[in-house]
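All the exercises in this workshop are built on plain-text protein records. A learned vocabulary of local backbone shapes supplies the integers on the structure line. Once this layout is familiar, the rest of the handout is easier to follow. An example says more than a description, so a record of this kind follows:
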Amino acid sequence: MPIANVRGVHINYQVVGDRGSWVALSPGGRRDLGVVEPLAELVAEAGFRVLLHDRRNCGVSDVVIAGEESEYEIWADDLYELLSQLGARPAFVGGSSSGCRLSLLLALRHPDAVRALLLWRVTGGRFASESLAHNYYGQFIDVAKEGGMAAVCETEFFRERIQQNPRNRERLSAMDPKRFIDVMEHWREYFIRDADLPVIGASADDLRSITVPTCVIPGNDWTHPRRVGEAASQLLPKGELHILMPQDMEVDLYIEAWDEKREEMAAIFVDFLKRTLSSTS
């Protein structure tokens, strides 16, 4: 897969399909692009070109623990630059969970880059804010305080980043542990402060300001409650709600069943994409 230099960071990406309008899809969590590749293939079969990429600090891309903004704002700016390099703006942009946050922030920060949004497993609520703040940042802050950067490199997550991209060990090992902790604490604060917003990363006013057509498929667990996706679809001026999982599960995360719904979800997205194209042509 090709590597792009995006704002000084090496970003691994893939384009599925060779014709049609551009669609950019991002996975949830800190997962690599392979998670959304099966969905991308279904969308590409319907006549679209789908851009997938490993966000910085994910997959094969560079680990760079730096930045004055939230990590998902940094991801949004990276995607804007990657779309620009590929001549793919404006694109249909979407994602699951953290990929959903990236998509919303791209629409807010770079509205010229977004034709419409595809959002699934929308994240929100105090439980999600606090648990994700620890999973993404808090646990690594604790490790760095106890064992420095050598211990950080031996955590499961960063060990995988090093295995996939050996240059990441040098970058991480060269960091001052205090700087690493400061950045991670700064990023963690964005999650904590967003606990009472409609969705993590966007206020009600933010959502009301997004005027592109938006297809919303809510999640079904404590981190992605159905009510959060439903509320987001109502706040978005051109929000369109589709329920795939009518029952919330009493668990932190419920991921497995979404693979079984992939073809149904792809059909919803493809229909939405084609209707949006026909309405603007």
Q: What stands out?
A: Residues 3-125+204-280 form a domain with the Rossmann fold fold (CATH 3.40.50.1820). The mean pLDDT is 95. The longest strand covers residues 9-16. The CA atoms of residues 133 and 189 lie 8 Å apart.
